[in-house]
Amino acid sequence: MKKPAHFKFRLYVAGDSPNSAQAVTNLKALCHEHLPERHEIEIVDVMREPKRALTDAVSLTPMLVKLSPAPIRKIVGNLGHREPVLQSLGLKS
To answer: Measured between alpha carbons, how far is 62 from 4 in angstroms, rounded to an integer?
Structure first.
């Protein structure tokens, strides 16, 4: 039996802006519901790490990057529209 995939996410936020806070909340809820025990989330605050945002070519926040499993996906926004987010992440066909 194949072991379920482990998901790695990186969420770029801009300080404690309302959209950034909502994206964090929405991502945690989505992972709790659809990927319990199978995910890790790294949150990068571009206000605190502007060079990293430049290096990673982040021009809009909040931005979610699904690093694994492949393929890499990027989603911009507060992740409030759940169905398209699930489809983009490969969690719903």
So the answer is: 27
Nearest to 44 by CA among 31, 30, 58, 32: 58
Rounded CA separation 67/77 (Å): 17
Answer positive or negative: Cα dihedral of 65, 67, 73, 78: negative
| Residue 77 DSSP class | S
Q: How far is residue 1's CA from residue 85's CA, in Å, rounded to a whole number?
A: 28
Task: Output the six-digit token pair for 44.
Answer: 């990068």
pTM: 0.92
Domains in the chain with CATH codes: 7-87 (3.40.30.10)
d(CA 43, CA 15): 11
Across the chain, which has 93 residues, the per-10-residue mean pLDDT values are 87 96 98 95 96 93 96 96 94 75
Beta bridge partners of 45: 13
